[in-house]
Here is the input.
Amino acid sequence: MTVSTAHQPETEEDRPAWARRPAPGRLALVQQFLNTHAYPGHDDDFACAATAQTWLRQHIPAAQIAPDADPADYRRLRDRLRDYVRGPSTLADSTRLTRTLGHPPLTVDMSATGDITLVSAGSATEWLSGEIAAALVLAVADGSWRRFKTCANDECQAIFWDQTKNGSGRFCTPEICGNRFRQRHFRATHPQAKTAGDTPSFRGA
Ligand SMILES: [Zn+2]
Here is the structure.
């Protein structure tokens, strides 16, 4: 798969907090898609056809780009996938996600060394659905899907890849979202702390 890296942020500080600890391999694209939602400082990448095309050009192979879908189709797929990450998913949630993924064209590619890869094809929506379906099946099968979590900072709600050994991570970035979450909680429970100087800095997962 060839993915353009044009327009990618150049420094660590330019990257959104969740992107500083990206999911591995094929799941990285799934995570990027999951985090196209609107959050403070970031508009929904699929708010309209123009922004959708920009995101697609940056993240999927050029050969698959075509003005083939309503941005609402991408938003629906993303939001159902986000619901699936949040869990515990009901049978109805799973059925809706399965229906939204549809029947993307996937082929088996076997190398001379015995490696087997599922290769996605088709239009932009089909290609993306295929990539997500292939990554989803493999990650659920090996248990790694559980490392996708929703950031507990309500203002963020990014889908992050929990890199803690025991899977106890709650924030996309403990040093940013964890600290903000705990400072808000502290101020709510200590109304006498009026200024930032009165609010301690917190650390932890
Ligand atoms: Zn966060």
